[in-house]
Write a structure and sequence with these properties.
Blueprint (H helix, E strand, L loop, with lengths): L5 E7 L13 H7 L2 H7 L3 E8 L14 H20 L3 E6 L5 H12 L6 E5 L20 H5 L22 E4 L6 H10 L2 E3 L1 H7 L1 H13 L5 E6 L21 H14 L2 E7 L10 H13 L6
Parallel strand pairs: 1-2, 1-3, 3-8, 4-5, 4-7, 5-6, 7-8
Protein backbone atom coordinates (compact mmCIF):
# COMPACT_ATOMS: atom_id res chain seq x y z
CA UNK A 1 0.00 0.00 0.00
CA UNK A 2 3.04 2.33 0.16
CA UNK A 3 2.58 3.06 -3.55
CA UNK A 4 -0.61 5.02 -2.80
CA UNK A 5 0.24 8.67 -2.25
CA UNK A 6 -2.94 10.60 -2.97
CA UNK A 7 -6.58 9.75 -2.34
CA UNK A 8 -9.61 11.33 -3.98
CA UNK A 9 -12.78 11.17 -1.88
CA UNK A 10 -15.86 11.13 -4.11
CA UNK A 11 -19.32 11.23 -2.53
CA UNK A 12 -22.60 10.27 -4.13
CA UNK A 13 -25.78 11.66 -2.60
CA UNK A 14 -28.14 9.10 -4.06
CA UNK A 15 -30.71 6.81 -2.52
CA UNK A 16 -32.84 6.43 -5.65
CA UNK A 17 -31.44 2.97 -6.36
CA UNK A 18 -32.96 1.72 -3.11
CA UNK A 19 -36.44 1.61 -1.60
CA UNK A 20 -35.33 2.92 1.82
CA UNK A 21 -34.38 6.61 1.83
CA UNK A 22 -31.54 8.14 3.81
CA UNK A 23 -28.31 6.73 2.36
CA UNK A 24 -27.95 9.93 0.32
CA UNK A 25 -26.67 11.43 3.58
CA UNK A 26 -24.12 8.63 4.01
CA UNK A 27 -21.14 10.50 2.52
CA UNK A 28 -21.61 13.39 4.94
CA UNK A 29 -21.86 11.02 7.91
CA UNK A 30 -18.65 9.19 6.93
CA UNK A 31 -16.82 12.49 6.47
CA UNK A 32 -18.13 13.67 9.85
CA UNK A 33 -16.61 10.52 11.36
CA UNK A 34 -13.17 12.00 10.66
CA UNK A 35 -12.30 10.13 7.48
CA UNK A 36 -10.10 12.76 5.81
CA UNK A 37 -8.18 13.66 8.96
CA UNK A 38 -7.56 9.99 9.69
CA UNK A 39 -6.21 9.38 6.19
CA UNK A 40 -3.99 12.44 6.40
CA UNK A 41 -2.58 11.18 9.71
CA UNK A 42 -1.63 8.01 7.82
CA UNK A 43 0.46 10.15 5.48
CA UNK A 44 -1.86 10.37 2.48
CA UNK A 45 -2.56 13.48 0.46
CA UNK A 46 -6.37 13.74 0.54
CA UNK A 47 -8.45 15.65 -1.97
CA UNK A 48 -12.20 15.83 -1.41
CA UNK A 49 -13.99 16.12 -4.76
CA UNK A 50 -17.36 16.77 -3.15
CA UNK A 51 -20.57 14.93 -3.91
CA UNK A 52 -22.33 13.88 -7.06
CA UNK A 53 -26.00 14.86 -6.76
CA UNK A 54 -28.56 13.12 -8.99
CA UNK A 55 -30.89 15.12 -11.24
CA UNK A 56 -34.15 16.09 -9.52
CA UNK A 57 -36.26 13.99 -11.85
CA UNK A 58 -36.08 11.47 -14.68
CA UNK A 59 -37.76 8.51 -16.30
CA UNK A 60 -38.07 5.00 -14.93
CA UNK A 61 -38.12 1.98 -17.23
CA UNK A 62 -39.79 -1.39 -16.80
CA UNK A 63 -37.83 -3.16 -14.06
CA UNK A 64 -35.50 -0.17 -13.62
CA UNK A 65 -36.69 2.40 -11.08
CA UNK A 66 -35.31 5.95 -11.45
CA UNK A 67 -33.30 4.79 -14.45
CA UNK A 68 -32.37 8.22 -15.82
CA UNK A 69 -31.18 9.55 -12.46
CA UNK A 70 -29.18 6.44 -11.63
CA UNK A 71 -27.44 6.44 -15.01
CA UNK A 72 -26.61 10.15 -14.88
CA UNK A 73 -25.23 9.79 -11.35
CA UNK A 74 -23.06 6.88 -12.45
CA UNK A 75 -21.84 8.83 -15.47
CA UNK A 76 -20.64 11.64 -13.21
CA UNK A 77 -18.99 9.16 -10.82
CA UNK A 78 -17.29 7.54 -13.81
CA UNK A 79 -15.78 10.86 -14.86
CA UNK A 80 -14.51 11.72 -11.36
CA UNK A 81 -12.96 8.28 -10.85
CA UNK A 82 -11.43 8.47 -14.33
CA UNK A 83 -9.83 11.81 -13.43
CA UNK A 84 -8.47 10.46 -10.15
CA UNK A 85 -6.86 7.49 -11.86
CA UNK A 86 -5.40 9.64 -14.64
CA UNK A 87 -3.64 11.65 -11.92
CA UNK A 88 -2.44 8.45 -10.23
CA UNK A 89 -4.67 9.01 -7.22
CA UNK A 90 -6.64 6.33 -5.38
CA UNK A 91 -10.41 6.77 -5.96
CA UNK A 92 -12.51 6.28 -2.81
CA UNK A 93 -16.26 6.36 -3.42
CA UNK A 94 -18.62 7.04 -0.52
CA UNK A 95 -22.26 6.04 -1.03
CA UNK A 96 -25.08 6.54 -1.32
CA UNK A 97 -26.68 3.30 -2.35
CA UNK A 98 -24.77 0.51 -4.07
CA UNK A 99 -25.94 1.44 -7.58
CA UNK A 100 -23.00 3.88 -7.54
CA UNK A 101 -20.45 1.06 -7.82
CA UNK A 102 -21.41 0.70 -11.48
CA UNK A 103 -19.85 4.06 -12.25
CA UNK A 104 -16.75 3.64 -10.12
CA UNK A 105 -15.87 0.12 -11.26
CA UNK A 106 -16.54 0.98 -14.90
CA UNK A 107 -13.92 3.71 -14.70
CA UNK A 108 -11.38 1.50 -12.94
CA UNK A 109 -11.83 -1.39 -15.40
CA UNK A 110 -11.55 0.96 -18.39
CA UNK A 111 -8.47 2.72 -17.01
CA UNK A 112 -6.54 -0.48 -16.40
CA UNK A 113 -7.75 -2.33 -19.54
CA UNK A 114 -4.55 -1.56 -21.54
CA UNK A 115 -2.52 -3.23 -18.77
CA UNK A 116 -4.90 -6.10 -18.03
CA UNK A 117 -7.97 -7.06 -16.05
CA UNK A 118 -8.93 -5.93 -12.56
CA UNK A 119 -10.46 -8.18 -9.92
CA UNK A 120 -13.43 -7.34 -7.72
CA UNK A 121 -14.14 -8.32 -4.12
CA UNK A 122 -17.74 -7.48 -3.31
CA UNK A 123 -18.47 -7.69 0.43
CA UNK A 124 -22.23 -7.53 0.82
CA UNK A 125 -25.17 -9.37 2.34
CA UNK A 126 -26.69 -9.35 -1.16
CA UNK A 127 -25.48 -10.48 -4.57
CA UNK A 128 -26.47 -7.34 -6.52
CA UNK A 129 -26.66 -9.56 -9.59
CA UNK A 130 -30.17 -8.79 -10.76
CA UNK A 131 -31.14 -7.16 -14.02
CA UNK A 132 -34.36 -5.67 -15.33
CA UNK A 133 -35.94 -9.09 -15.94
CA UNK A 134 -34.85 -10.93 -12.79
CA UNK A 135 -35.54 -8.16 -10.26
CA UNK A 136 -38.60 -8.34 -8.04
CA UNK A 137 -38.47 -4.65 -7.07
CA UNK A 138 -36.79 -2.71 -9.88
CA UNK A 139 -34.38 -1.22 -7.32
CA UNK A 140 -31.13 -0.63 -9.18
CA UNK A 141 -28.87 -0.98 -6.14
CA UNK A 142 -29.45 -4.70 -6.64
CA UNK A 143 -27.88 -4.70 -10.13
CA UNK A 144 -24.41 -3.06 -10.29
CA UNK A 145 -22.27 -6.20 -9.85
CA UNK A 146 -24.10 -7.84 -12.73
CA UNK A 147 -23.74 -4.70 -14.84
CA UNK A 148 -19.97 -4.31 -14.45
CA UNK A 149 -19.53 -7.96 -15.46
CA UNK A 150 -21.43 -7.42 -18.71
CA UNK A 151 -24.66 -9.14 -17.68
CA UNK A 152 -26.79 -5.99 -17.63
CA UNK A 153 -28.36 -3.56 -17.25
CA UNK A 154 -26.01 -2.08 -19.85
CA UNK A 155 -27.15 1.50 -19.21
CA UNK A 156 -25.60 1.45 -15.75
CA UNK A 157 -22.11 1.18 -17.23
CA UNK A 158 -22.30 2.42 -20.84
CA UNK A 159 -21.80 6.19 -21.06
CA UNK A 160 -20.58 6.12 -24.66
CA UNK A 161 -17.09 4.98 -23.68
CA UNK A 162 -17.37 1.34 -24.81
CA UNK A 163 -17.32 -0.25 -21.35
CA UNK A 164 -14.71 -2.82 -20.41
CA UNK A 165 -16.45 -5.60 -18.53
CA UNK A 166 -14.77 -7.45 -15.67
CA UNK A 167 -14.53 -11.23 -16.20
CA UNK A 168 -16.35 -13.19 -13.51
CA UNK A 169 -13.25 -15.39 -13.23
CA UNK A 170 -11.71 -12.53 -11.21
CA UNK A 171 -14.84 -11.59 -9.24
CA UNK A 172 -15.71 -12.72 -5.72
CA UNK A 173 -18.85 -12.19 -3.65
CA UNK A 174 -18.13 -12.39 0.09
CA UNK A 175 -20.56 -12.62 3.04
CA UNK A 176 -23.73 -13.07 0.99
CA UNK A 177 -26.70 -14.45 2.90
CA UNK A 178 -29.72 -12.86 1.24
CA UNK A 179 -29.88 -13.76 -2.46
CA UNK A 180 -32.97 -13.68 -4.65
CA UNK A 181 -33.64 -17.03 -6.33
CA UNK A 182 -33.37 -15.76 -9.93
CA UNK A 183 -30.33 -13.67 -8.96
CA UNK A 184 -28.53 -16.70 -7.50
CA UNK A 185 -29.29 -18.67 -10.66
CA UNK A 186 -27.78 -15.91 -12.79
CA UNK A 187 -24.65 -15.82 -10.65
CA UNK A 188 -24.17 -19.58 -10.96
CA UNK A 189 -24.72 -19.48 -14.71
CA UNK A 190 -22.12 -16.71 -15.05
CA UNK A 191 -19.52 -18.62 -13.03
CA UNK A 192 -19.35 -16.23 -10.10
CA UNK A 193 -17.19 -17.12 -7.08
CA UNK A 194 -19.35 -16.85 -3.96
CA UNK A 195 -18.20 -17.21 -0.35
CA UNK A 196 -21.44 -17.01 1.58
CA UNK A 197 -21.84 -16.71 5.36
CA UNK A 198 -21.93 -20.52 5.40
CA UNK A 199 -18.42 -20.59 3.92
CA UNK A 200 -17.17 -17.95 6.37
CA UNK A 201 -18.66 -19.86 9.31
CA UNK A 202 -17.02 -23.06 8.14
CA UNK A 203 -13.65 -21.76 6.92
CA UNK A 204 -13.21 -18.56 8.91
CA UNK A 205 -12.72 -15.08 7.50
CA UNK A 206 -8.93 -15.37 7.19
CA UNK A 207 -9.01 -18.42 4.92
CA UNK A 208 -11.98 -17.03 3.00
CA UNK A 209 -10.24 -13.72 2.29
CA UNK A 210 -6.94 -15.36 1.36
CA UNK A 211 -8.83 -17.34 -1.28
CA UNK A 212 -10.84 -14.29 -2.40
CA UNK A 213 -7.65 -12.25 -2.79
CA UNK A 214 -6.06 -15.07 -4.77
CA UNK A 215 -9.03 -15.24 -7.17
CA UNK A 216 -9.31 -11.48 -7.61
CA UNK A 217 -5.58 -10.79 -7.49
CA UNK A 218 -3.76 -13.48 -9.44
CA UNK A 219 -3.29 -12.47 -13.07
CA UNK A 220 -4.87 -9.05 -12.54
CA UNK A 221 -3.44 -5.55 -12.25
CA UNK A 222 -5.21 -4.95 -8.95
CA UNK A 223 -8.36 -5.38 -6.88
CA UNK A 224 -11.38 -3.12 -6.47
CA UNK A 225 -13.13 -3.50 -3.10
CA UNK A 226 -16.83 -2.71 -3.00
CA UNK A 227 -17.98 -2.83 0.62
CA UNK A 228 -21.66 -2.61 1.56
CA UNK A 229 -22.04 -2.09 5.31
CA UNK A 230 -25.12 -4.34 5.35
CA UNK A 231 -22.70 -7.28 5.15
CA UNK A 232 -22.02 -6.54 8.83
CA UNK A 233 -24.58 -7.86 11.28
CA UNK A 234 -26.90 -5.05 12.47
CA UNK A 235 -25.67 -5.18 16.07
CA UNK A 236 -22.46 -3.55 14.84
CA UNK A 237 -23.84 -1.61 11.86
CA UNK A 238 -27.46 -0.60 12.46
CA UNK A 239 -27.37 2.37 10.10
CA UNK A 240 -28.19 0.75 6.78
CA UNK A 241 -31.35 0.48 4.72
CA UNK A 242 -31.43 -3.26 4.08
CA UNK A 243 -30.10 -4.87 7.29
CA UNK A 244 -29.89 -8.67 7.33
CA UNK A 245 -29.34 -10.56 10.60
CA UNK A 246 -26.43 -12.94 11.15
CA UNK A 247 -23.86 -11.23 8.95
CA UNK A 248 -20.17 -10.82 9.60
CA UNK A 249 -18.95 -9.26 12.83
CA UNK A 250 -17.09 -5.97 12.99
CA UNK A 251 -13.85 -7.85 13.69
CA UNK A 252 -14.38 -10.09 10.65
CA UNK A 253 -14.94 -6.94 8.58
CA UNK A 254 -11.69 -5.45 9.88
CA UNK A 255 -9.79 -8.65 9.17
CA UNK A 256 -11.06 -8.67 5.59
CA UNK A 257 -9.94 -5.06 5.13
CA UNK A 258 -6.58 -5.65 6.81
CA UNK A 259 -5.80 -8.69 4.67
CA UNK A 260 -6.58 -6.70 1.53
CA UNK A 261 -4.20 -3.98 2.72
CA UNK A 262 -1.49 -6.57 3.31
CA UNK A 263 -1.96 -7.95 -0.20
CA UNK A 264 -0.82 -4.65 -1.73
CA UNK A 265 -3.31 -5.21 -4.55
CA UNK A 266 -6.03 -2.68 -3.69
CA UNK A 267 -6.40 -0.01 -6.41
CA UNK A 268 -9.83 1.47 -5.65
CA UNK A 269 -12.70 1.18 -3.18
CA UNK A 270 -16.38 1.86 -2.52
CA UNK A 271 -17.95 2.12 0.96
CA UNK A 272 -21.72 2.31 0.55
CA UNK A 273 -25.19 2.06 2.09
CA UNK A 274 -24.54 4.00 5.33
CA UNK A 275 -27.93 5.42 6.37
CA UNK A 276 -27.61 8.06 9.14
CA UNK A 277 -31.40 8.21 9.63
CA UNK A 278 -31.37 4.61 10.85
CA UNK A 279 -28.04 4.82 12.69
CA UNK A 280 -27.24 5.12 16.39
CA UNK A 281 -25.06 8.19 17.13
CA UNK A 282 -23.20 7.77 13.81
CA UNK A 283 -22.00 4.31 14.85
CA UNK A 284 -22.10 2.80 11.35
CA UNK A 285 -20.40 5.76 9.68
CA UNK A 286 -17.62 5.69 12.27
CA UNK A 287 -17.15 1.99 11.64
CA UNK A 288 -17.12 2.63 7.88
CA UNK A 289 -14.42 5.29 8.20
CA UNK A 290 -12.30 2.92 10.28
CA UNK A 291 -12.76 0.12 7.75
CA UNK A 292 -11.56 2.41 4.96
CA UNK A 293 -8.42 3.25 6.92
CA UNK A 294 -7.84 -0.45 7.64
CA UNK A 295 -8.13 -1.29 3.94
CA UNK A 296 -5.58 1.44 3.21
CA UNK A 297 -3.05 0.06 5.64
CA UNK A 298 -3.78 1.40 9.12
CA UNK A 299 -2.60 -1.04 11.77
CA UNK A 300 -3.16 -1.22 15.51
CA UNK A 301 0.52 -1.87 16.25
Amino acid sequence: MNSIKGIDIIGAQIDLGASQKGVAMGPLAIRYAGLAAGLEEMGFSVRDRGDVIPPPDGMSLRGLMHYDQVVETNRQIYELVKEALAEERFPLLLGGDHCTAAGSISAVAKHYAPQGEIGIIWIDAHGDWNNETSTATGNMHGMPFSAVCGHGPDGMVDFGQQPHFVPTAHCVQVAGHDFDGPEAARMKEAGMHVFSMHDIDRRGMAETMHEAIRIAGEGTVGIHLSFDVDAITPEYAPGTGTPVPDGITAREAFLAAELLAESGKLVSMDLVEVNPILDERNKTAILGAKLIRAALGESVY
